[in-house]
Amino acid sequence: MIKKVFTVFAVMFLFILISPTCVIASDMQSQHQIVVAMNINDLTGDEISYEHPANQNQELQLSLKIINVGTENISNIQILIVAVLPEYIMRKYGNAEEMAPPIDDASDILNASGLMGNAYEVKPSRTIKITELPQGGFVQENLTLIFKTAGSWNIYTIRVYDNGSKSILSSETIEVSRNLPKYMDVINFGLPFAFAAMLTILAYLIHKKRKLKIIS
Amino acid sequence: MIKRQIKMLWNTAKETSTEHLISYHFIMCLFLCCFITAIMIWLCSYFEDTRNLKYTITSTLFPLVIIAMTYLSIMTVNIFSGEIDKQTMGTLFTLPVKRWALYFGKILGMILIIPVIVIMPVGILIFELSMIVGYLPPVLISIILQLALIIMLTFIAVISISVSVSVILRKTLYSATAMFLYLMLMVFIIPILIGGGGPVTRYNVDYALIFLLPYACFSAATVSTIILNNVDPLLYCLLMTYSLIAMVYGYFVFRRMEV
Asked: Which positions in chain B have a beta carbon within 8 angstroms of at least one beta carbon in chain A?
């Protein structure tokens, strides 16, 4: 037992060290234990953080390490990679006084992810399938992420079991910056004036036409 | 006979809406709505720390609704009470047009200008948001369209109540004052009814309380979109019922009106 606990802690500690944005979670639903380490950076290798956000449509590299830290071999592992903007996750609140509960329902996240449409892309696929993961073994997966919408994105890895149940393995938050070019202010304030000018000219012409109609 | 009256109704509606659409005060109102929308997007983009787009959209729509609601109620009061004051309503009654055709024609004329008031600022909102945040998720587009629909229904409700008030009170001064007080009541009673201020964490609306306040229905719709990603369908029903009751009540007064 002590050996098992030490093994888990050793692996977790190792991945915290090797990855700056590493998130680790344990899948405790079954007897098997899976640890997923997630690391997101841009193609130059720079870490994506709140201070260094990604740009819209920028290609990001998502590195996943899926490790079996359980006592048995695991077969047929299916992991989904989903991203959501957290404001679209509908959560069930008890009453107003209650604090917002943590997001722990995988189906809520999947529902919200379905609402995102093509706001993000995972290449080559959103699903990772592993046929066999031996005890103590790991699988490294490199994926490409593209976010088309600005915001604070939550990326989740969700394990889908054979019986259809789902559980969250790990999550990570990254920032995608807004596009605020210098000409934005001009467009922002110019549009209402342009519309008003256009409508005033139109109204003036119609008034003139009406007057001519009455006179004739 | 009915066909002719319906044609009269349509002509009245067309004339009323055209008269408003080409008026300079309508353009001014439209400009104000668009300008306020632009300013709100600008403020939310630069100064608001939250990255929640739903808050940006709802906070943008509130001032727009207040401005347009005030404009529409003033104009509606003007086309009913104004005509009674100027004695032109008496002339209209002598024409071979039924009162229902006249009444509903004028209301329809006001309703026809609503899409223009809503579509332009909402168009600016969608255009500028897509420039700033990139691809807009389908759920966000759906939220904006649902809110646009609820705004239109709110405006129809405000027009209906304005019509009722102006045919009951007759004098423009009384009607305008009553509508102003009603609008102020609606705008300032909202924080008490909905529990505004601070983060919204639940959607629990007392329909009986907000039934008489269209602006409260709009406010509840914004809360509903933040919490549920959808506008509560009961709010559409609530606004339509309110508009129908106010319109029909106004018609019964208008039918027996003597000028």
From this structure: 21-24, 27-28, 30-31, 34-35, 37-38, 41-42, 45-46, 51-54, 120, 124, 127-128, 131-139, 195, 201-202, 204, 226-229
**Whole-number Å distance between alpha carbons of B148 and B227:** 18
Using alpha carbons only, how large is chain B's radius of gyration in Å?
19
Q: Convert the pLDDT of each residue in A34-66 to its tens digit.
A: 888 888 888 777 777 777 888 888 889 988 888
Percentage with pLDDT > 90 across chain B: 50
Write out the E strands in chain A: 34-42, 59-68, 74-84, 120-123, 127-133, 138-147, 151-160, 166-176
Backbone angles phi, psi at B231, to 5 degrees: -85, 135
| pLDDT surpassing 70 at residue B177 | yes
Residue of B nearest to A56 (CA): B134
Asked whether the beta carbons of residue A57 and residue B134 sit closer than 8 angstroms, the reply is: yes
Pairwise CB contact (< 8 Å): A87 & B54: yes
Is pLDDT at A118 greater than 80 in this prediction?
Answer: yes
How far, in Å, CA of B97 to CA of A120, rounded?
Answer: 59
If you count residue pairs, one on A and one on B, with CB atoms under 8 Å apart, how many are there?
111
Chain A residue with minimal CA distance to B55?
Answer: A87
From the CA of B46, how many Å to the nearest CA of chain A?
9
pLDDT of res. A133: 85
For the cut 90, the answer to whether the pLDDT of residue A10 exceeds it is no
What's the ipTM? 0.79
How high is the pLDDT of residue B119?
A: 93
Residue B201: list chain A partners with CB under 8 A.
93, 96, 98, 100
- B109: Cβ–Cβ under 8 A, 6 or more apart, which residues? B12, B13, B14, B15, B16, B17, B19, B20, B79
* Higher pLDDT among residues B50 and B45, named by residue: B45
